[in-house]
């Protein structure tokens, strides 16, 4: 029986995790799964046939250490998604690459250092009354602030403390998120699996379950599917899994984020999605096994 490691974190807290839904279909294909924290020391990664990044949702606090661990893993076995993809995706500055490839993204101003004047100018630049400010390396809406033109000055001291010396981004707050929400499309080995719509709870703007967001299984319309395919083609490498997040802005869809490191894949929302994931994994591994995995591993 082959062995696979799901890379997780030390303490899951209040996070919702659905990766256990993969264990049965993986067992049917002759795979045993172990879940390990990426911070766990003295792990012989070479004893695993593959390591899959899953619920390691604290990496943004220690990005350099995280990348170092992944580099060690990728020297010993197959890592999904691979290290090159992770390095590209770990900073939201990859949105610049998407834009350069003609993929429509949410308008963004990039900041190296916190500047209150730049925040004030952003309202005019985007012609909006509200902004979102967040770090370029972040997850689960951590250190994400919704700012109003009328009272953002009251938060300046807090914002300076959080973003001083830290790369961050400014975007218009898209109020459509409060009603229609965000759309997430899931692809396994570049094949569409399922899609959901995420809507925040009343009085909030964050769509994550941990913040009270609601989830709905949906069938994406043709326009959204076309944009998703275009987004996939702009990724500099091949992925086992991808979660593509979109929002409707000024009557058309825009990319919010491409989640290629450790996204929740919401296997709970589509009962056949775990089997599709495992099938994609087996397909990805087949050519590696035929030719010799260590030599073909992308590092």
Automatic annotation (TrEMBL):
InterPro entries: ATP_grasp_subdomain_1, DcsG_Biosynth_Enzyme. GO terms for molecular function: ATP binding; catalytic activity. SUPFAM superfamilies: Glutathione synthetase ATP-binding domain-like (SSF56059). This is Prokaryotic glutathione synthetase ATP-binding domain-containing protein. The lineage of its organism: Bacteria, Pseudomonadati, Pseudomonadota, Gammaproteobacteria, Alteromonadales.
């Amino acid at each position: 029986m082959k062995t696979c490691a799901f890379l997780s974190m030390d303490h899951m807290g209040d996070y919702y995790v659905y990766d256990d839904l993969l264990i049965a279909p993986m067992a049917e294909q002759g795979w045993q799964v172990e879940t390990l924290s990426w911070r766990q020391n003295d792990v012989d990664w070479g004893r695993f046939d593959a390591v899959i990044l899953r619920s390691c949702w604290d990496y943004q606090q220690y990005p350099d250490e995280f990348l170092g661990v992944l580099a060690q893993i990728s020297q010993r076995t197959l890592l999904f998604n691979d290290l090159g993809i992770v390095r590209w995706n770990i900073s939201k500055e990859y949105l610049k690459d998407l834009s350069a490839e003609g993929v429509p993204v949410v308008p963004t101003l990039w900041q190296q250092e916190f500047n209150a004047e730049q925040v004030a100018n952003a309202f005019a630049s985007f012609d909006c009354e509200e902004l979102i400010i967040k770090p370029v390396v972040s997850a689960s809406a951590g250190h994400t602030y919704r700012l109003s033109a009328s009272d953002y000055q009251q938060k300046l001291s807090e914002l300076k403390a959080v973003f001083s010396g830290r790369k961050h981004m400014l975007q218009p707050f898209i109020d459509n998120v409060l009603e229609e929400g965000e759309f997430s499309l899931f692809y396994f080995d570049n094949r569409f699996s399922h899609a959901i719509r995420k809507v925040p709870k009343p009085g909030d703007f964050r769509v994550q379950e941990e913040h009270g967001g609601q989830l709905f299984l949906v069938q994406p319309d043709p326009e959204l599917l076309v944009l998703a395919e275009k987004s996939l083609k702009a990724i500099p490498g091949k992925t086992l899994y991808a979660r593509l997040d979109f929002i409707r802005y000024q009557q058309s869809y825009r990319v919010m984020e491409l989640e290629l490191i450790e996204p929740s894949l919401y296997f709970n929302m589509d009962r056949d999605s775990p089997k599709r994931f495992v099938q994609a994994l087996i397909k990805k591994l087949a050519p590696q096994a035929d030719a010799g995995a260590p030599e073909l591993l992308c590092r």
